[in-house]
Structure prediction request, 502 residues.
Amino acid sequence: MLLLRISLVFISCTSIHSDYSLFHTNIRQLPYLTFDCLYAYLVDGGREIGGSYIRNYHLIPYCRRPDNDKELEQESHLNHENIAQRISFDELKKRNVTSEQLLAWLAPIDVAEKYEMNNDSSDIFYQCKSPWFGPMCQYKFGHSVSISFSDIVEATFNNYSKIIENVTTGSCYRFLDNCNQELWPRCLDWREICDGKTDCLNGEDERWCDQLDMTKCSDLEYRCHYGGQCIPAEFAKDNRISIDCLDGSDEQEEHFQFSWLIYPQCTNIQTFQCQERTTRYPFSFSCGDGQYLSSFDLPNLIRSCSNYRDIEFSRSILTSLDHISNIDCRDAFLCAMYSNRTQNTGQPNPADLGPFESIIDHVWNEGCQPLSQHCMMEWIVIPENPTMFGFFQFVYLTNRSTSEFQASPAPDFICFDAKRCPVLLATITSINIVNGLTCCHISNLIEYVEYMDFYQLLSTFLNFGRKCLKTSVEKSCINASYFHCNESLKCIPYYRVGDGVA
Prediction:
């Protein structure tokens, strides 16, 4: 009777897609954990101008990557309600069950391979009830089991633009030891590693990245613009639709005029051209889905990323005060900083509120209390680390009156890491070094700060941030393979000379 039941289950499973058979189910060791993967077979393409239609074929793995042991532990418990039966390898062999039949029953590929190599063992195969699958029958999709995983992936991406406003999280690159433990949107996307812009305080995200510049390609290879990647020469300039370099520099790029956003189509594209794509431009901002802003101009008050990462990043920088333990002090600062804050004088236009809208709604028309009544420290900093436009930390004295805040949101002092932005040292008078940062009075950098509104403040420091990124103080280059720029005093690899990127 049991054998008959197994046969019936096999017949009923033949209509279920075998691409639900997971692989890498037996690799579960932290810290670099990637397991329980499915392959999606996807096709994309397009027509070249005056040419034929080009198709690109992709086999893309989708895997689990839990952040911690606790999440992994939750996946290790059996749910017997999802299991049709438990069968040992010995029993399967007696019934002449083949490894191909196990795959038809959605057994993980690792289990089928293990059974094929040693079917005399006492290992257990868990046969799952439909629509469950996985080594312990712990997974199912919200679609019919007759739909392939590839179709599920495609449908999910096609629907993404409709639900994007309700998505409040994204993926984070977790393979740095002492950095990037923050939550989205402040955590780093994998595209922000070795992008020429230091994000970690200890520089870990850019450590050893200059070694990529030393890569030399053979005469039969094409050198991609960034990352030291070499591809066969015949793959370069072969078709705009067929991109082989991670940065896409092997093909001509589409230009989108009057837009800060690069690759806007990537919201709904699930293949290499977006999901495995970095930018060919230095100092850009990754939206985290293949889209980019042309420069790291954050915080900003205008959303460009379709997934809102830029505006959420800006809001986090400007309003996150978790480093201040006193709640009353936090509220007093937020009220003084953002109440009645408009671009122009007079009543505020709701369209101008940008990332401050939720804060302004909370403190609108309220009389703000002086910081000195609630804050025991001498000053308050935002953000917690010098990440304002990638370099700066704003310092506000707590003996400052609410009327002074309303007149101008400009900070009293500016702090920055002089090693990362040495060019500013020539224009300031350093008053102190706090937590390894060089600090100066705001008047060293900006005149007439008492009349500056928030938008002017951000615009001014955006320019300072660009100056830190694009200029230096190097009088010569230590490495002979680098070119010394006479005006910016920066050292760049020789292969980047005359590449059209400033």
In short: Residues 1-16, 342-353 have pLDDT under 50 and may be disordered.
